[in-house]
Structure prediction request, 101 residues.
Amino acid sequence: LCFPFHDLTTGGLFAEPDVTIVSGLKDMVVFEGDDVTFRCQVSHENARDVEWKLQDVALQNNEMNEISVEKGKIHTLTLRKVTEQDIGTITFRVGPHTSTA
Prediction:
């Protein structure tokens, strides 16, 4: 007796919701040597394809730049001990949406 064996594969296509910016960045004035924090709120939790830039240079989470997410939707960037070289435009991007300060 021989029984045909068939592999059964299931799957699906799940579209991620279009994450938009609910509350954008605000301009900040800070003294040299101080820390400064920028916040941007997005429409959905666990947003992927998120990027922070300073003068078009992508920022990474390290000892000088703290990148985090609060309450799932509020993305924050803290620049530690800013100097004159940090003067410029901060950009937050999620997917095709951007906010600058």
Notes: The chain has one domain: 21-100. DSSP finds no helices and eight strands in the chain. The two ends are 73 Å apart (CA to CA).
